[in-house]
Amino acid sequence: MKKASILIAAVILGGFSIAGVGLVAVTYAMTDTRIAENQRDAMLSKLKAIVPPERVKNDPLADRIQVSDEDRLGAPVTDVYRVRDGDAPVAVVLQPVVPDGYAGPIKLLVSVLADGTLGGVRVIEHHETPGLGDRIDERKDDWIVEQFNGKSLHDPEPEEWKVKRDGGEFDQFTGATITPRSIVKAVKNTLLFVQHEGDALYGPTPQAAPKAIEPAGEATPAQAHTLQTGNGEAG
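^ thats the sequence. predicted structure below, dont judge the formating
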């Protein structure tokens, strides 16, 4: 009788344990899916803010390739989202990294329209100093909108792609020159990359077979692109 009671208790306890694990697993799966959807919506919202929204006729987040040019784009692999209006290229939106931000790397979204002008620039991750370098965030300051929208490698000329303190055309922040200096350089390098690659960035869609295209600048074949589905600062 005692053994039977122990067995029944063990079965009941085991059942509760299995049910608990199942409930945790279901809750995690639902939460994980919701987080992924929220992240996708946030990225799509930022992306559409820097391209002509009326001409976005595809899903740029699905029409994605990955390229490799660490010297210009700041990371070993960089996402490139293609924006199309039917068969017509509208823009490419790259996700370069600013490796030399004051408080660490800064992740950007840079939209380059088909005519070579900037559709806009947005910061998607940074660790810059509150009240100084964090003015790169468009929610806190208009700097990143006012400095880059409509600019190109000919407006201003390449040698003027510097902050004013360095003899260029772009504003810096009072007490924080390092952050804007680094971003200006990164945006210019992104434009140079897009200028070099041209139509190759609108090559086969991610469903096509992998294909290598030559990287910008002088590089070895191993560096070829692969198509794939703080504290206070001054300077």
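Strands lie at 64-67, 78-85, 88-94, 97-98, 106-113, 118-125, 212-213, 225-226.
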